[in-house]
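Posting for a labmate who doesn't have an account.
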Amino acid sequence: MTEHLTIGERVAWYRRRRGLSQEVLAGLVGRTTDWLSKAENNRIELDRLSVITSLAEALDVSIGDLLAEPTLLEWSASSGRRTVPALREALMDYKQLTPLLGPPPDVEPPAPEDLRGGVKEVLDAYQVSQYGFATRRLPHVLADALAASRSHSGRDREEAHAQLALTYHGAAMVLGKVGESELAWIAADRGLAAAQQSGQSTVTCSLFRAVAHCLMATGRFTAAIQLVNDAAAVLEPGLGAADDEYLSVYGTLFLVGAMAAARAEDRATTQTFLNEADEAAQRLGADGNHLWTAFGPTNVAIHRVATAGELGDIQIAADLGERIDTAGLPVERRVRHSLEVARALSAWNRTDEALAALLDAEQTAPEQVRHHYLSRELVTGWIRGTRGRPSQPVADLARRLGVVGG
């Protein structure tokens, strides 16, 4: 119902539904009535999740309600016509809860080495922002991994649980990208349980990261920070003999924590977590992609930009963001950084440059750009802020992103 509104207009819509005046809602979030009026009338951009979260809490709605999530996952040749509902059915199949509720599969489960290929296919698709393809493949890979984890024994069983955990991780990350935060939580929760059956600390840490992302998606920033601290305490004893994979998952955990701290407006913890990640990156020595982390010095740098954006330090985000070369990172990381740069440029009224950054990002990863609230909010804001007809590139982009009727 509110799909084609800006975030500010959705705030106004829900405020009226709750029967609250602007004075009351402004007071609940510690702002002035003038600020709220400007936000609701698109004279102030609501692009910081910390602010959006406080408004959602005051209105007793979810962050997703204000961000208009989830958005429809479009059909394509790679997605087919069974997307999120098919994955939902797979995750909510009661037979997944315990083998007591269903007989073992009649078909021979795949060997762990064969299972790795399917898991890699899904996680690679996530990193190149092909969410439709990943969503189509996930139910099949999940069924194979679940069957293998219940049929094998010994080390094969542990490896099957590791692959099952990584499959759930892929599901959680893809579902998070398309705004299905509740389903993502189910996947992350089950993935963490499977990871603990694998005996592989790096896989367990990878699932800690997925859980932290899910906490952030629902506005539970303080809980995400605590999870990172708790998980780091579990991993610290192994740092002395850590290999590249261990360092990568450890460092990436702090990058997630830094984003949570920035969204909680905790500058000190943000800086502490970034420094911890930077130490791991310097020890790693170069950018890598161990266990699909895309971790290294460049990922730390782009998180400095992203956290600056979340904290409202727009000039820092704009100045630093344009200087970072992300060419060596996976598509998902490169495009996510481009969205941060576009946000910062737009906030400085450098709209033409922001539009150019967004169009480049869309050309690289159309599914990722369409499903991110920043791109949708930027384009909607540009249209609302234009007197008369918007420029043709903006109008065309709005149509492709599905943020205008027609």
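Reply:
Got it, the structure tokens are right above this. The first helix runs from residue 7 to 18.
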